[in-house]
Write a structure and sequence with these properties.
about 575 residues, mainly alpha, 31 helices
């Protein structure tokens, strides 16, 4: 066929006979058998000793093709070994000259399946494959596919669109993997989104593939970063910031200095990575991080855009926020004000740099966001007063009560707290982490007191997936409270259900929680929740799927009809008594 013809066409260029030549010889000859013998002699393996060995193989019924094939495979292996050896020996210019000559000779046979590996091997070892050959490879889908990644890198670095096509499905896969973890049906306060260590995360498939595609090529690394920035701007999805940091640290693990030394964020990211591993920013590392921030020179402010993206990684925010809560508790014990703690101020500075990443990259105005004094002088002291309220209440509970009776837990929230959560991004982030903290401590009183402040928060942060993922995990620690009407009403009616209809993700998180805890919830409450959470026509597949799973579980919990004894029918009509379930 034409494909075959194309495949072997290269042989003629090299003065090697092919099938076409044999056809021609046979068409124009008088004695076909003699002609075949002559063709075999001229084109066979030219070794005098074979003259006698081949008839011997014929006697054993070994086809000539099989013999030639095995000789060919041997030779090809030897040639591949030789090519790899040439790539390492002698002077640089000489070895590449040899390989280029070999490529020139063999490239016309690149379509022959048997020869292709050799041609590919030669190209793989050439740091600069001639432009013309790259263009030919690029134009042919099968050849492009068969290329080693070393050759593809040379093609990609001048073809951003093609590289984008290769990277794009990986980035989609990465985001999907993150979302699957956040919405996973396994809910636990021990294992959550932030549990895997940075080292473990960098072993993920996507990070490894991207690292492999980039190699030591700074140009490709820059392209990937550009893709990540663009996608982050377009979608505001913070997982792209995580990938930005993971990719740099993956190259750091492999000690690829060609890239690490030119990325101005390298040392900052490396230091922050150690903090993320410990889930805490200690004093020594705080000094180091501060040194990097203070060291940004005039004219280099653009690096702030990159640093802010590194700090916007949810794993970084998580570490900074957890450290902030720990610092506040320490300050209560030391009787110190937030503004007197340089470590705390640094954490806030990094939080606001991270939270300001999108605005900075969008506006291209590279300067650190101004910290609002109110945050430090009013909001944080307010949080500290909540910590004090808890201490006081606990101590009061232990004191022998005189006539005065038990002291109730403070139930009102200062209006300022609610206002801060609505209007100030950093305050909101820290406030949410404080609520996660008290939930993890199983502090039901504090939780119910602050919960109403979550209904309206800065850009709906309390309904974001990461917060709800962590909250649902921590709520499993308060499992026994779900039997109480008051607790359920505050949590579901007062918080979750206020957003379910307008936010699909909240609907999913509530269903996840109930799938996990339905057996703890009071039956009457469960029934009304089942009605309230029924999917609408607009609901997505995920919500419908979760709702069906929940319904199946609840169906299994209902007593079977046999257990409900039938009242024998009497002639007299009885007044109908509502059964408790149908209330």
């Amino acid at each position: 066929g034409p494909a075959q013809a194309e495949m072997y066409a290269g042989l003629q260029e090299l003065g090697v006979a092919n099938g076409e030549d044999l056809k021609e010889t046979l068409t124009n000859c008088t004695e076909p058998l003699k002609a075949i013998e002559q063709f075999q002699t001229e084109n066979g393996v030219l070794l005098p000793s074979l003259q006698y060995a081949l008839p011997f193989l014929d006697l054993h019924g070994t086809p000539r093709l099989e013999f030639h094939q095995s000789v060919f495979d041997e030779l090809r292996e030897k040639l591949l070994e030789r090519v790899s050896a040439i790539a390492l020996e002698g002077k640089v210019e000489e070895r590449y000259k040899k390989l280029e000559d070999l490529l020139e000779k063999s490239f016309s046979l690149v379509k022959m399946p048997s020869i292709q590996p050799v041609v590919m091997c030669v190209m793989k070892h050439l740091p600069k494959v001639p432009e013309k050959k790259l263009k030919l490879v690029m134009a042919d889908k099968d050849l492009y596919k068969a290329c080693a990644v070393e050759v593809k890198r040379q093609i990609w670095q001048d073809n951003q669109a093609l590289f984008g096509d290769e990277v794009s499905p990986l980035l989609k896969q990465y985001i999907l993997e993150k979302e699957n973890i956040l919405f996973s049906n396994d809910i636990s306060f021990l294992q959550n989104f932030f549990s895997p260590s940075p080292k473990t995360r960098r072993q993920g498939e996507v990070v490894q593939k991207l690292t492999q595609m980039i190699g030591k090529n700074v140009k490709l690394y820059d392209m990937v970063l550009q893709f990540l920035r663009t996608l982050f701007l377009r979608t505001r999805n913070v997982h792209y910031c995580t990938l930005r940091a993971e990719l740099l640290m993956s190259l750091h693990d492999l000690e690829i200095s060609e890239i690490c030394t030119v990325d101005p964020c390298h040392k900052f990211t490396w230091c922050l990575d150690a903090c993320i591993r410990e889930k805490f920013v200690d004093n020594k590392r705080a000094r180091e991080l501060q040194g990097f921030l203070d060291g940004v020179k005039k004219g280099q402010e653009q690096v702030l855009g990159d640093l802010s993206m590194i700090l916007c990684d949810p794993f970084a925010i998580n570490t900074l926020a957890l450290s902030t809560i720990r610092h506040l508790q320490d300050l209560v014990g030391q009787d110190t004000l937030p503004r007197e703690s340089p470590d705390l101020l640094l954490l806030l500075r990094m939080l606001s740099l991270g939270q300001g990443a999108w605005d900075m990259i969008d506006s291209q105005v590279f300067k650190e966001p101004k910290m609002e004094a109110e945050l430090i002088t009013r909001f944080l002291p307010l949080l500290m007063s909540f910590v004090v309220d808890d201490h006081t209440f606990t101590v009061d509970q232990k004191l022998p009560s005189e006539e005065k009776g038990p002291i109730p837990y403070p139930s009102t929230i200062p209006e300022a707290f609610t206002k801060f959560l609505q209007e100030n991004r950093i305050a909101c982030e820290i406030g949410l982490y404080y609520i996660l903290h008290i939930t993890k401590q199983r502090n039901k009183n504090a939780f119910l007191r602050l919960l109403p402040a979550l209904v309206e928060t800065f850009s709906d942060l309390a309904f974001s997936d990461i917060f709800l993922h962590l909250l649902t995990g921590n709520l499993t620690l308060l499992g026994d409270e779900f039997a109480l009407e008051e607790f359920c009403t505050s949590l579901f009616d007062g918080f979750f259900l206020t957003a379910c209809s307008r936010k699909e993700n909240v609907h999913r998180h509530v269903l996840r929680l109930l799938l996990h805890l339905h057996h703890k919830v009071a039956p009457a409450k469960l029934e009304s929740l089942q009605k309230a959470l029924e999917p609408t026509k607009q609901s997505g597949e995920a919500v419908k799927e979760l709702y069906n799973q929940l319904s199946e579980k609840l169906e299994l919990r209902k007593p079977s009809p046999a257990e409900v004894t039938e009242t024998p029918s009497m002639e007299l009509p009885l007044p109908t008594v509502p059964t408790p379930a149908s209330r």
